[in-house]
Amino acid sequence: MNEIIGDDIGPARVIQLYSARERLRAVVVVDNTALGPAVGGVRVSPRVTADEVRRLARTMTLKNSLAGLPHGGAKAGIMADPATMDKERTFRVFARMIRDCVDYIPGPDMGCDETAMAWIHDETGRAVGLPEEIGGLPLDKLGATGFGLGECAEVAAPRAGIELKGARVAIQGFGSVGKAAARSLRAKGAILVAVSDSRGGVHDPDGIDLEALATAKEDTGSVNGYGKGRKIAAAEIFGVPCDILIPAATPDVIHGGNAGAVTAPLILPGANIPVTAEAEEALHRRGVLIVPDFIANAGGVIMAAMEYGGRSEQEAFAAIGERIRTNTGLILEKAAADGCLPRTAALALALERVRRAMAYRDY
């Protein structure tokens, strides 16, 4: 693993995990705990890297800070293929290896779900996004992140010159977040016109039937199984004519090489760090409004914090709506007044709260 260089915020610690017997490799990055114990998901992918985990952990610090949660940020990465690994064995061994890392509270992320969190909780007593049968608020099942994206869209769309009712939406990544975002936006009158996953995509300017799409995905393993519209390559999703583009899969998917193809005037990140700094600057110069990822997709971690604090599902959804709407409006107003990127304005506010908390601790 390449050396991870820190700054005045973190990371507080980087832990490399390896089990020769289980052939398990993982890394945990606890970025900052000044605001409280760090919450962050466990990402499972054969391509996840320590640097990616570091960047994601910092995003969680920023996300928890701006959402006003009593938590710092962290992330874990398990270098394995979730489609082929022995999931229960892997997550139980991973959990035992982090049992003493008490300032890290794992949550679900790409490649795992509430069942994995139940296994981790069984081993450590610490996890969020648990199944409802054991007192949890299953983030993916309830669609917390996608719900939050819909709330964000209602505030951001008018500032991008978009009428949300009738707005054309393209979603890159049709997993739990993408599906929930599509449902949330449809309820607000938007129309899903394009969607993609790792195996391809589909574009139908007349609108995609969400239930038929979900069934096709379940039956065939890809949105390509949807029977209507035009089949497209996965990479084509970024250039599809639309009003709102939601990257909801992996990091750095919008970059210098494809930013010029983007037609959407509004980007709402459903995934963390999906837009490179280079692309964000270029799109901003073109007038594209990009809500920072750590605001737009904070619904999941807000619900996780509500679960950890013993709050109800209703209280969690109310908190998601109120906090994401407030922060979206606040940051977009500040960015417009200062003439800066929304990310720049959001970073300043998030880091200010973290630094104030650090000043009260022997950090």
- Write the CATH fold name of the largest domain: Rossmann fold
CATH superfamily of the largest domain: NAD(P)-binding Rossmann-like Domain
Cα-to-Cα separation, first versus last residue = 26 Å
Uncertain residue ranges: none
Q: Would you count the extended β strands for me?
A: 12
Query: Could you give the order of the helices and strands?
Result: EEEHEHEHHHEHEEHEEEHEHHHH
Let me know the largest β-sheet.
Answer: 7 strands, mixed
**What's the arrangement of strands in the largest beta sheet?**
9-8-7-6-10-11-12
- The portion of residues assigned to helices is 40-55%
What's the quaternary structure here?
Answer: single chain
* Count of structural domains: 2
CATH architecture of the largest domain: 3-Layer(aba) Sandwich
Task: Note down, in words, how this protein is organized.
With 363 residues, the chain is an alpha/beta fold. It folds into two domains: 13-60 and 73-141, Leucine Dehydrogenase, chain A, domain 1 (Rossmann fold, 3-Layer(aba) Sandwich); 144-298 and 330-347, Rossmann fold. The chain has helices at 50-66, 87-97, 114-124, 139-142, 144-159, 176-187, 210-220, 277-285, 293-296, 299-308, 313-338, 342-359; strands spanning 13-19, 24-32, 38-44, 72-78, 104-108, 168-172, 191-197, 200-203, 230-232, 244-247, 266-267, 289-290. The strands form two sheets. It has a seven-stranded mixed sheet, sandwiched between helices. Strands 1-2-4-3-5 form a five-stranded mixed sheet, with helices on both faces. Helix 1 links the parallel strand 3 (38-44) and strand 4. Helix 1 packs across helix 12 and helix 5 (144-159) packs across helix 10 (299-308). The chain is globular, with a radius of gyration of 19 Å.
